[in-house]
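Slide 14.
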Amino acid sequence: MATKKTPARPRTRSTPKPRAKPQAAPAARKPSTASRALSVFSIGALAVAAGAGVIELVRRLTARSEGHDAPDLALDRPHPGPDQRAPEAFRPDPTAPLTAADRDALRPATMPAPRVVETQVRELAPG
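Slide 15: predicted structure.
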C-alpha cells in the first residue's frame, strides 16, 4: 500500500531584520566613599557578631558547674531543730543600736492614698 504524500508548503522567506548595533556597556560608576565605608562597616559588624556568637557557644559548651557542694543544705539532711543554734559569733546582736540609715531602710514603702473624684462617686452611688 502506497502512502500519499502531501505537497510540501513552500517556505516563505521573510526579510531579515537588520541587526542592532552592539551598544557599549554604560561606564560603571565607582561607588562613593560613604558607600564603601558603610559596606566595610557592615562587614566588620557581621564579623564581630559572628565572633561573639562563636565565643558564646564555646563558653556555654565548656561551662563548668560553679561553686561547691554544701553538705549542710543537702535534702537528705535533717532540718535543724529549735535546740540547735548558730555559733555565738554568727548570731546578730539584738542590743546593737540601729542607725538612721538602717531605720530608714526598714521603713515600709508608702504611697499616697487613692482619691475618689466626685464623678466617680456619682457613678458608684446606687440609684
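Speaker note: The helical segments are 33-61, 100-106, 118-124.
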